[in-house]
Amino acid sequence: MERTFVILKPDAVQRGLVGEIVARFERRGLKIVGMKFMAVSEELARRHYAVHQGKPFFSGLIQYITSGPVVAMVLEGTDAIQVVRRTIGATRPAEAEPGTIRGDLGLEIGRNLVHGSDGPETAAFEIDLWFGDDLVAWSRATDPWIFE
Ligand code: DAT
Ligand code: MG
Fold it and tell me: pTM above 0.85?
């Protein structure tokens, strides 16, 4: 069982797509073990996106992610990191496959709706950064029908 970190970015919240996007992860079978609606400080944004510091799009990225409230989540499930990335789709929504969140709901890279951790180290770092120990390990009634 693996955990990964997800953000429903300010455009997802502003466009009223929180329910739509959370529903896709839930239907996939992923279990919510952390979830909060929050404003993102510039400091948190810079730490989260530290790997992109110095790139031409960095300041725009910080501006975007701090421009309104977000929903931060931790999802748990089989191969959760890869499954979430594939459910979200390619970074550029115009290139994302139909059926993915970005491929169905977005058009532009700077308004790509969702973040998902890209690997085990990133997931551990991001979960700790955004949630610390504020997670709920729980047994879901449907677990035996989703996990073999
Ligand atoms: P992803 O969000 O798919 O993991 P990433 O980690 O490479 O993509 O980049 C983080 C975010 O930065 C991405 O969601 C949108 C923005 N971004 C990445 N590359 C960009 C580019 N070439 N121009 C503009 N924004 C970019
Ligand atoms: Mg990334």
Answer: yes
In a domain, 57, yes or no: yes
Compute the distance between CA of residue 21 and CA of residue 113 in angstroms, rounded to an integer: 9
Counting the structural domains of the chain, the total is 1
Q: Which pLDDT value is given to residue 48?
A: 98
Around ligand 1, the residues with Cβ closer than 6 Å are 52, 57, 61, 91, 109-110, 112, 115, 118
How many CB atoms are located within 10 Å of the residue 28 CB? 15
For residue 139, the model assigns a pLDDT of 98
Q: Ligand 1 center to residue 91 CA distance, Å? A: 6
The segments of the chain whose pLDDT lies below 70 read: none
Which residue's C-alpha comes closest to atom 7 of ligand 1?
A: 91
